[in-house]
Design brief:
10 helices; 243 residues
Length: 243
């Protein structure tokens, strides 16, 4: 077994584990390893495939918490935002966007992890939720960063862990599926991707299964801390990659 295959398997397991634990995070976890073993276009599409698979595997465990009335504004806004973000690609510096999002996410997570104050947002209703979904869709189309804002927003809403996970997992699954279809339409589903998927899927499924079992043992507080810690790593990674 070659080193590249081992990197694909290890990245798939790590990405699946984080996704099973939190409902997001495959890309930022797996790409660290996959970019050493695969061309960037193959690695990016592989992230979408494995993310969708991990999301679908864990979906039955949070199906009871899915509130379609709550989720709908995020989905509508996100689907509108994707083509807007893609259109903005020619006018906006992706590096600047990554830097800005990295600063916001890192600052927020650091304050929340180190401090005892937990702000709660009650205003705005579904209009505010839709705006956050729109912003997430724009960032997804622009730089593949669809999940950060909805995840933070769901935490600020002070919903329980299942309700929060249902929102951002439902949002991410929809956005990632649409993105995967766009990659397929662009001709990025290749034989090389197929070979990588064969090695990655078992690790993704096993990692997601283990992550789900750990998730069920977490209370709201520990889940909140875990999400903040993973978002903090993502924010720091964005800052590093934008400099």
């Amino acid at each position: 077994m070659t080193a590249d295959v081992l990197l694909i398997i290890a990245g798939a397991f790590a990405g699946g584990l984080v996704n099973g634990l939190t409902g997001f995070g495959t890309g930022m976890t797996a790409l660290v390893l996959w970019l050493h073993a695969l061309p960037v276009t193959v690695a990016a599409t592989l992230v979408l495939v494995c993310s969708v698979v991990a999301q679908l595997q864990s979906l039955p465990s949070i199906w009871h918490a899915l509130d379609w009335r709550r989720l709908a504004p995020f989905l509508i806004g996100g689907l509108i935002g994707i083509p807007l973000g893609t259109w903005l690609l020619v006018m906006v510096s992706v590096q600047a966007v990554k830097l800005g999002v990295g600063i916001v996410v890192t600052t927020y997570c650091t304050v929340m992890l180190l401090g005892s104050f937990r702000p709660t947002v009650h205003w705005g209703g579904r209009i505010a939720d839709g705006i956050i979904g729109l912003a997430g869709g724009i960032l997804g189309g622009l730089a593949g960063l669809s999940g950060a804002l909805p995840t933070i927003w769901a935490s600020l809403r002070n919903w329980g862990k299942d309700a929060r996970r249902a929102v951002f997992q439902g949002f991410n699954l929809t956005i990632l599926t649409v993105s995967l279809m766009a990659h397929a339409a662009a001709g990025l589903v290749t034989a090389e991707l197929g070979r990588a998927v064969l090695f990655a899927l078992p690790g993704t499924l096993i990692g997601a299964f283990i992550g789900q079992r750990i998730y069920r043992r977490l209370d709201d507080h520990r889940y909140d801390r875990l999400v903040l810690a993973i978002l903090l790593v993502a924010g720091l990674t964005l800052l590093w990659s934008s400099l």
